[in-house]
Design a protein that fits this description.
Elements lengths: L6 H13 L6 H4 L8 H11 L7 H17 L5 H21 L9
Helix pairs in contact: 3-4, 3-5
Length: about 110
């Protein structure tokens, strides 16, 4: 399957947990944040906000296929994926509360 995460990657994460990083930079922190799964957030973002467009069905198919990829290649656990769904739902709810609906805005 060509998994991205393997025993070597796991050992690197254990070493990071034990010793930490001397300097935090984009190249050194990449791949260490798994909870929640922002891959899940991005997949939901694309699908939900493409509803009603011609791109909805292709986005739904592509992002449905992302679910097993998030678990196998993204290095996430099922709980990370579920937390990503909750993070998306919270962010979408907050966006609806904060951002005005253009249908009710007057020019």
């Amino acid at each position: 399957m060509g998994l991205v995460t393997n025993a070597e990657f796991g050992a690197m994460l254990q070493q990071l947990a034990r010793d930490g990083l001397p300097v935090i930079a984009p190249g050194t922190i990449e791949g260490t944040i798994a909870f929640p799964s922002y891959h899940t957030v991005m997949a939901l973002l694309a699908v939900v906000y493409l509803r009603g467009t011609a791109l909805f069905v292709p986005a739904l198919a592509l992002n449905t296929a992302m679910v097993p990829a998030i678990l196998s290649h993204g290095g996430h656990h099922l709980l990370d994926l579920l937390a990503g769904v909750l993070a998306f739902l919270l962010a979408a709810w907050l966006a609806r509360r904060i951002v005005p609906d253009h249908a009710t805005m007057t020019p």
